[in-house]
Amino acid sequence: MTERPAHPEPTGPTSEVLTSGSSTDDDPVETTAVDPASEGRAREARETHLARADGAVLRADDLIAGYLPGVNILNGADLYCMPGELVGIIGPNGAGKSTLLKALFGLVKIHTGTVTLRGDEITNERADTLVAKGIGFVPQTNNVFPSLTIAENLQMGCYQAPKLFSDRFDFVTSIFPALGTRRAQRAGSLSGGERQMVAMGRALMMEPSVLLLDEPSAGLSPAMQDEVFVQTRAINKAGVSVVMVEQNAARCLQICDRGYVLDHGRNAYTATGHQLANDPKVIELYLGTLAKKN
To answer: Which of 49, 148, 228, 284 is in Cβ range 3.0-4.6 Å of 78 for a Cys bridge?
Structure first.
């Protein structure tokens, strides 16, 4: 693996829904025996992680986590994101991708393993605490207050520090200009892609150092999917580290600096986005299947 390139009156959702969302991607699936080749890939990925993760802004080590006692979705997952990096996570349904993001954000109980932010341990801390420390999270669904205006949704994003609103509103609308010109429009009247802009904008209001995105292109038209990927890259170029889970694997690998292929709750492969997109084994085992589903 090479070093990453430099660069960079409907009711609204409850606070729990705002941060957790809902997704069937990581529902427990019937387990099968893991083959020796998979075990070998996992060991290699672990060794790579340990050799390269020092200095990461966000780091997860050997996470075992799940929704129910005795039913683990993550089985030793590792991840790191360097300052200014855009990291993509791909893999089949049930691999643990969304669960990994939720575990990083304190929404799924981590049984063993650690998560650190700029070197400080944050394992299993509350989501609101993590927001204040500099992590933003955009769930896949139920991610706006439909009865509130665009401006009011963005205000909710910095409710812990309301004095930030003016400066952060200017920053968010520099990336999403439509949110500024339509600030008085209710979020419930927006299209799916426009709602996604509001959700991403709100997560940026507390000036996060890391933004976690769970399936940001899910359910959108092809044109809006492209727009979301462009905006994600723009956020990253503005200095925000991004960790993104995506089912549109090919497009994700095109824009990310580095990617992970997650399978059975742990790392199967990790390399630059370009390397993964052109790896014959990754194409055969994952990209072909994911492309058909998309």
So the answer is: 49
d(CA 197, CA 235): 11
74 located within any domain: no
76: alpha, beta or left? (left if phi > 0; alpha if psi -120 to 50): left
Confirm whether 178 is domain-assigned. yes
In this structure, the chain runs to a length of 294
Task: Give the separation between CA 260 and CA 277, rounded to whole angstroms.
Answer: 11
How far apart are alpha carbons 96 and 90 in whole angstroms?
10
pLDDT value at residue 14: 36
Domain residues for the domain of 159 are: 84-106+124-261+268-293
The span from the CA of 220 to the CA of 223, in Å, is 8
Classify residue 185: in a domain, yes or no: yes
26-76: per-residue pLDDT in tens?
Answer: 554 434 455 677 777 778 888 889 899 999 999 999 999 999 888 999 999
Whole-angstrom distance, CA of residue 283 vs CA of residue 147: 43
* Adjacency order of strands within the sheet including 74-81: 74-81, 58-65, 110-117, 120-121
Q: What percent of the chain has pLDDT over 90?
A: 77
- At 205-252, the pLDDT tens digits run 999 999 999 999 999 999 999 999 999 999 999 999 999 999 999 999
- Give the integer Cα–Cα distance in Å for 24 and 19: 16
* Structural domain contains residue 234: yes
Token reading at 15: 């606070």
